[in-house]
Inverse folding.
């Protein structure tokens, strides 16, 4: 009787401590601890029965193991049907973007970590600003392009129409210039504010700096933006 009484007290204390811990524990940590605790309790129960009841009780417990394993498999399937645990997020980090997807709400958002919009959240930016950021990513961070595309497709399904319009407008400007006289390398250096002979890295940095300031989506001039693009293309042989 004393052995049963002590075992009951220990079990009660353990349940109280576990209930307090469940309230504040991380779900992933909780799952690991619960699994370990259950295995430990199972071993203790087997040892207890072996000591107090002998081989007959131990044999009966072993006979129940197949049913326990079936119940465990059913429990896991039911748990999986309930979906992922709440509060989970997925993160994607590139040079320009730090994106997060909330599994519960399905909301996708991110922070710009580099470039002309550094420190801005995507959900606080206008579609024009997002398209400007998209062009910047295409120029300097190819890994950010599919990430930003996913965001635009989700919240601005028709965004490519606006992009095509801008590209068509810039293309018509380039075509009209090419039908006249092509830009010389000297003119290209002057437009970008570079000395003759500047390297590829300097050309790209100058182009990026100017486009951030005078891009049409920032209230700049379409014609000037097209000239800056042409200057870059001329010097880089694009």
């Amino acid at each position: 009787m004393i052995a049963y009484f002590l075992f009951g007290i220990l079990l009660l204390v353990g349940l109280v401590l576990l209930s307090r811990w469940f309230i504040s524990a991380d779900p992933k940590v909780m799952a690991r601890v619960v699994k370990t605790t259950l295995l430990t309790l199972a071993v203790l129960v087997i040892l207890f029965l072996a000591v107090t009841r002998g081989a007959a009780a131990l044999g009966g417990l072993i006979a129940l193991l197949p049913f326990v394993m079936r119940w465990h498999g059913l429990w896991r399937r039911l748990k999986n049907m309930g979906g992922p645990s709440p509060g989970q997020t997925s993160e994607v980090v590139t040079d320009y973007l730090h994106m997060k997807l909330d599994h519960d709400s399905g909301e996708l958002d991110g922070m710009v970590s580099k470039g002309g919009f550094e420190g801005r959240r995507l959900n606080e930016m206008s579609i024009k600003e997002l398209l400007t950021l998209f062009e910047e990513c295409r120029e300097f961070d190819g890994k950010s392009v599919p990430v930003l595309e996913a965001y635009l497709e989700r919240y601005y399904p028709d965004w490519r129409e606006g992009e095509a319009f801008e590209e068509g407008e810039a293309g018509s400007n380039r075509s009209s210039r090419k039908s006249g006289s092509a830009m010389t390398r000297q003119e290209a250096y002057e437009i970008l504010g570079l000395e003759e002979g500047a390297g590829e890295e300097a050309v790209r940095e100058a182009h990026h700096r100017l486009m951030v300031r005078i891009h049409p989506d920032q209230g700049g001039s379409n014609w000037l933006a097209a000239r800056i693009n042409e200057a870059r293309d001329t010097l880089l042989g694009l």
Notes: The beta strands are 89-93, 97-102, 108-112. Residues 86-157 form one domain.
